[in-house]
């Protein structure tokens, strides 16, 4: 039996799997941020989304400015060491143009939520909220009595976080085969946990490759095909973040975003030109031009082959 072909265009994948009112997880840490997917959600005019992203950054700011998001669940907000997020600040600090419901966790707290969601557990225990003020602003951080004695032999109260089960998780990766076996190298985050926690999963990749390529290096397969509902080939789809081995981080864009997003009119004009004004991410890429992409080109740094062995 041949493998199921799950490839779609970005437009098809978002239309099929992202709906108004959904809880949408967008994960990728430092590189492989699913920016192109966020832009397509904006183009299709989705509304009232709950967005879950551990490191809420530029793509979240853009989705907020486009009116897509009513609630944000995150453990960090910021412009990746390069400045601020103007739209998010307006929503949180002055409820302009409307308030944003914001649910905050620590990084590890979010990881535990994904772990609980992926394993269909009712909660996940952790110690790192001891002494923190986060429980004062987030009522979902609760204590339970451990059924086992603590380090001192006494009854122990321990913090727990609830599971998260998104309607859809979208991640970006370097490559996948047509059935969804997805490979990532370099920095990894919680992509696998976020996919397993979700009801549906869309994987966006720099390139779709033959199954033989995936099978030749199976340890790089972070997300297996059985957990994936759609595969989207979208080269340069993580810009302005980077994709290890494909293109570098656009530091100039990160530095410019604070000024763009601080000015509401300028931000609206940016969205009109670069998102609503482009049919898809391929047109966005073409609009930047090959000279621009040449400036983000990376050289080779090949990994040595591994001998997995085979039967004689």
Task: Outline the secondary-structure elements.
Blueprint: E1 7-8, H1 10-17, E2 23-27, H2 35-43, E3 49-52, E4 55-56, H3 58-65, E5 69-74, E6 76-77, H4 86-94, E7 101-104, H5 107-119, E8 124-126, H6 134-137, E9 142-145, E10 157-161, E11 168-176, E12 182-183, H7 191-197, E13 200-208, H8 211-216, E14 221-223, E15 230-233, H9 251-262, H10 264-274, H11 281-288, H12 290-294
Parallel strand pairs: 1-15, 2-3, 2-11, 3-5, 4-6, 5-7, 11-13, 13-15
Antiparallel strand pairs: 8-10, 9-10, 11-12, 12-14
Helix pairs in contact: 2-3, 5-7
Kindly report how far apart the N and C termini lie: 26 Å
Biggest beta sheet summary:
10 strands, mixed
Radius of gyration: 20 Å
- What's the pLDDT, averaged over the residues? 96
State the low-pLDDT regions, or none.
none
Q: Helical content, roughly?
A: 25-40%
**In terms of structural class, how would the helical and strand content be classed?**
alpha/beta
The best one-word shape is globular
Strand tally: 15
Beta-strand fraction estimate: 15-25%
What is the string of SSEs from the N terminus onward?
EHEHEEHEEHEHEHEEEEHEHEEHHHH
In DSSP terms (H or I, runs of 4 or more residues), the helix count works out at 12
């Amino acid at each position: 039996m041949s493998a199921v072909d799950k490839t779609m265009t970005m437009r098809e994948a978002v239309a099929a799997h992202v709906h108004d009112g959904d809880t949408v997880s967008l994960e990728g840490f430092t590189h492989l941020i699913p920016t192109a997917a966020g832009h397509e959600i904006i183009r299709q005019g989705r509304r009232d989304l709950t967005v879950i992203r551990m490191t809420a950054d530029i793509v979240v700011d853009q989705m907020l400015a486009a009116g897509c998001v009513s609630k944000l669940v995150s453990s960090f907000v910021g412009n990746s060491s390069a400045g601020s997020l103007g739209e998010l600040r307006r929503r949180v600090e002055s409820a302009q143009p409307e308030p944003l419901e914001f649910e905050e966790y620590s990084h590890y707290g979010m990881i535990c939520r994904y772990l609980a969601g992926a394993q269909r557990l009712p909660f996940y225990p952790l110690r790192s909220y001891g002494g923190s003020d986060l429980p004062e602003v987030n009522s979902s951080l609760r204590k339970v009595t451990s059924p086992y004695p603590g380090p001192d032999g006494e009854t122990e109260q321990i913090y727990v976080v609830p599971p998260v089960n998104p309607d859809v998780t979208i991640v970006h990766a370097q490559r996948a085969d047509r059935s969804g076996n997805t490979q990532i190298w370099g920095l990894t985050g919680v992509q696998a946990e976020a996919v397993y926690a979700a009801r549906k999963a869309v994987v966006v990749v720099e390139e779709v490759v033959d199954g033989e390529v995936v099978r030749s290096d199976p340890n790089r397969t972070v997300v297996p095909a059985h957990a994936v509902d759609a595969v989207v080939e979208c080269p340069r789809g993580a810009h302005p973040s980077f994709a290890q081995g494909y293109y570098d981080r656009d530091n100039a864009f990160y530095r410019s975003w604070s000024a763009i997003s601080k000015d509401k009119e300028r931000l609206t004009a940016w969205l009109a030109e670069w998102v609503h004004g482009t049919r898809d991410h391929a047109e966005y890429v073409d609009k930047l031009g090959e000279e621009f992409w040449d400036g983000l080109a990376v050289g080779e740094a090949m990994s040595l082959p591994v001998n997995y062995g085979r039967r004689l």
